[in-house]
Amino acid sequence: MPERAALVPVRPRTPGGPTRTALLVFGALALAALTVDGAPAGAGGGLRTLGRILGGMLTPDLSPRYLAVVLGDAAITASYALAAMSLAGTAGVAAAVVASGVLYDRRWIRTLSRIVLALVRSVHELVWALLFVYAAGLSPSAGVLAIAVPYTGVIGRVLGDRLRDVDPAPVAALAAAGASGTARLLYGIAPQVSADATGYLAYRLECALRSAAVLSFVGLGGLGARIELALRDLDYGRAWTPIYATILLVILVDRLGVRHRRRFAR
Amino acid sequence: MDPLVTLEGVTFGHRDAFRLGPIDLRVRAGERIGLIGSSGAGKSTLLHLISGAGAPPDGGTIRIGGRSVHGLHRAERARAVGIVHQRHDLVDQLRVRHNVQAGLLGRWRLWRATLALVGPFEAPAAREALERVGLGDRFDARTSELSGGERQRVAIARLLVQDPHLVLADEPVASLDPVRAASVLELLTELAGERGRALICSLHQPELAVRFFDRIVGLRDGRVDLDAPASSVSTADLDRLYGPHA
To answer: For the whole model, what pTM was predicted?
Structure first.
């Protein structure tokens, strides 16, 4: 929201003071984190393995046959992410409307929906995946649902807050012109949030791609499974090809999101 | 002829804070009233009350066409009364035609409103209204690209499409330069006059009120202190209304 950001008064920065203290604290914490298991990171045989892994980064397996395999994995991961986001996007937007109270403003509905959204999003998608896999077996729908359920919680929360944050004056003017609640949502509220919402959903699709790649470790197929397979074979060149594919997918989604955001914000 | 608008003993506000009224006022169809008074005299509060969009008055009744405005269903109310503000009337992200067609939302069913928003469907009345306010070529423009004066005209076009019996305008020209202010007031009074509608327009500048309106109503400390034909309003009246000049 660039307009909103422009309204925030810029506080002159005091050199030293709190900023320097914060940097020192974070620096110390970062050093501590590296030695969290009692030994400095990369000690012993770890460093050599790290070197090999980094070597694989420069020499990914780009043979046509392997590329075709990775492309298939990418398609699986992308379709998981897309399917999950179609569900989570639809359910999340609907949940946002309910939780924001812009249509039916009843306190108990708002509170209840907020609690439900908080519950579903506080459980990580990996845990949801385990639950669904135990319940339904290793099926694509288990993977899709594992992403869609917590994402619905996050999207509903974020967009719900955004819906409550619109400029109320144009909406009030619509009400004065006789618009119903739904018409006010369509004409007054949705246009004010559509650019932000599109950008946010594109960003969430990005997250869903990463989640889908990670979820395939659970055994659902896709890029993550391919990475794990290569790592088990200690074939680091082959491990990096699907990692690069993940990065390319994320960049692709990011570009699409930027373009759509621009179209709405113009 | 029965008056179009009747206010009887209208009061609003708490005893210790600002209090409006009691106000009695009758407005006939075709009348164009300039509402003046210093800042805080209650002009906006009064217009907001008459618009029926907010809370009802604490005492008294406001009737438009014989019916209490706060008892009307939103669609009926939109036919009875419409209001245009100094700004903030428009949804910036929509195209101009959508903002104008929003004046029909009280009459349209939801499917039609949706179709008008996402489809190429347009209401002939909207194009006509935009041409009427001199913005026929901005039909498909983005509202955010308009100037302040153009935005005010689009808001008026929306009111034209809504076509209420009583038009309220709350400081419609406060942020416009004198030339644009005059053309907006001309437009408002002309439209209200030719359609046999009534207009109540609050203004900061009494000289504009005297120039453009038939009848002047002056508020002072929440009460009607002046109610006279524009031609008979004297400098002494205005001095009394705005207090002695320092």
So the answer is: 0.78
Cα–Cα distances in angstroms (integers) from residue A242 to residues A65, A214, A216, B185, in the given order:
13, 12, 12, 67
Q: How many Å from the N-terminal Cα to the C-terminal Cα in chain A?
A: 13
Helices (H) and strands (E) in chain B, counts: 9, 10
> Chain B: residue nearest A265 by CA?
B93
Q: Tell whether A12 is covered by a domain.
A: no
d(C-alpha B89, C-alpha B83), whole Å: 9
Determine contact: B48 vs chain A, CB below 8 A.
Answer: no
- On whether the CB atoms of residues B50 and B166 are closer than 8 A, the answer is yes
> For strand B198-202 and strand B166-170, is the pairing parallel, antiparallel, or unpaired?
parallel
pLDDT band, very low/low/confident/very high, at A240 (cuts 50, 70, 90): very high
pLDDT of A162 over the 90 cut = yes
How many C-alpha atoms does B110 have within 13 Å on its Cβ side? 7
- Please provide the distance, in angstroms rounded to a whole number, between the alpha carbons at the two ends of chain B: 44
User: For an interface test with B, which of A1, A171, A186, A193 has the most B Cβ atoms less than 10 Å from its Cβ?
Assistant: A186
Domains held by chain B: number: 1
- For B185, B195, B208, the CA distances from B179, given in Å and listed in that order, are 10, 25, 11
Residue B95: DSSP 8-state = B
Q: Considering the domain boundaries, does residue A152 fall inside one?
A: yes
- Smallest CA-to-CA distance from B37 within B211, B189, B224, B235 is with B224
Taking every pair of Cα atoms in chain B, the longest distance, rounded to a whole number of angstroms, is 59
Query: CB–CB of B186/B179 below 8 Å?
Result: no
pLDDT, residue A264, reads 56
pLDDT single digits (tens) B30-51 = 889 999 888 878 888 899 899 9
User: How much is the pLDDT for A16?
Assistant: 60
CATH of the domain at A217: 1.10.3720.10
Distances (CA, A) of A102 to A92, A105, A133, B159: 15, 6, 37, 25
Chain A residues with CB inside 8 Å of B117's CB? Answer: 186-187
Residue span of the structural domain in which B196 resides? 5-242
What is the span of the domain harbouring residue A82? 64-265
Taking an 8 Å cut-off on Cβ atoms, the answer to whether A191 and B105 are in contact is no
**A189 pLDDT exceeds 90?**
yes
Partner A contacted by B115 (CB < 8 A): no
Q: What CATH number has the domain bearing residue B81? A: 3.40.50.300
- How many domains, chain A? 1
